[in-house]
Amino acid sequence: MLEEIYTKCDTKMQGGIDHLHKEFKTLRTGKVLVSVLDNIKIDYYGTATPLDQVGSVLATDATTIVVNPWEKNLLSAIESAIAAANIGVNPNNDGEQIKLFFPPMTVEQRQDSVKKMKGMGENAKVSIRNDRRDANDKVKKLEKDKEITSDESKSAQDRIQKLTDKYITQIDSILKDKEAEILKV
Q1: 5: left (phi over 0), alpha (psi -120 to 50) or beta
Q2: What percent of the chain has pLDDT over 70?
Q3: Which distant-in-sequence residues (6+ apart) come within 8 Å of 5 by Cβ?
Q4: Nearest-CA neighbor of 39 among 28, 30, 52, 29?
Q5: Per CATH, is 34-101 categorized as 3.40.50.1820?
Q6: Do domains 2-26+106-183 and 34-101 have the same CATH topology?
Q7: What are the extents of the domains in the chain?
Q8: Do residues 112 and 29 make contact, with C-beta atoms less than 8 angstroms apart?
Q9: Contact 75, 98 (CB under 8 A)
Q10: Torsion of CA 64, 81, 120, 170, to 10 degrees
Q11: 3-state DSSP assignment of residue 32
């Protein structure tokens, strides 16, 4: 019974770490990543479709992304969707493909990215703490229902706290590494 709570808690906390990594892909670092376009959807015959499903999206170098649609009639829809997404660049439509030229990041932009990254990290920590609270509530309910003793309850809550500390430390380490990556010129 307690093992099941530990396993569920561990799985949820790992999910928080995975979500943090996924969120980091939307952050801009010194090198441009095609994942900055992940949240952009195109109206494809009445359906909101991700950009990478209507054409190829490639980072040709550290500052340029090229979007090559499979159907040329989608160029204007792609162009307007990218402009509306406000990702910090204007799309350049040459009639064949759309090019996005990202200027090198300024110090202020890097610091802004770090601030966003720290906010994402804080959200991940809150998520981990919520997972801890949920697990502890389940343990307390077991104790209240006399399914476990108070000593077992205390021991279980200590184990959940150690799990929480492990993941919070992991998040701090991830944030430190990511900050160094963003601030590196």
Answers
A1: alpha
A2: 99
A3: 135, 138, 139, 156, 160
A4: 52
A5: no
A6: no
A7: 2-26+106-183, 34-101
A8: no
A9: yes
A10: -50
A11: coil
Taking the C-alpha atoms of residue 123 and residue 171, their distance in angstroms, rounded to an integer, is 10
pLDDT tens figures, 61-114 = 888 999 999 998 889 889 888 888 888 788 998 989 999 998 888 888 888 889
pTM of the model: 0.73
Q: Report the largest interatomic distance among the alpha carbons of the chain, rounded to a whole angstrom.
A: 72
- CA 142 to chain CA mean position, Å: 35
185, pLDDT greater than 70: no
Fold of 2-26+106-183: Topoisomerase I; Chain A, domain 4 (1.10.132)
